[in-house]
Amino acid sequence: MVKEVITSPKTGDSCIHVKHSSGLDIYICEMKGFSSVEALFGTKYGSINTMFRQKGDKDYTTVPEGIAHFLEHKLFENEDCDVFELYAKTGASGNAFTSFDKTAYLFSCSKNYQESLRILLDFVQKPYFTQATVDKEQGIIGQEIKMTNDNPEWRVFFNMLRCMYHEHPVKIDIAGTVESIAQIDADLLYKCYHTFYNLNNMVLSIAGNISADEVLAICDECLKPCEDKGLETVFPEEPDTIVQKELIEKQPVGASIFNIGYKCTDCRSEERLVKSMQASIAASILSDASSDMYQRLLKDGIINSSFGTEIFTGDGYFTVIFSGESDSPAVVRDSLADEVDRMIKEGICEKDFQRIKKSTYGMLVRELNNVESVANLMMNSHMEETGPYDAITVLSEMNCDDVLEFMKTELKRDKLVMSVIEGM
Question: Exactly one of 38, 65, 72, 77 is catalytic; which is it?
Answer without folding.
Answer: 72
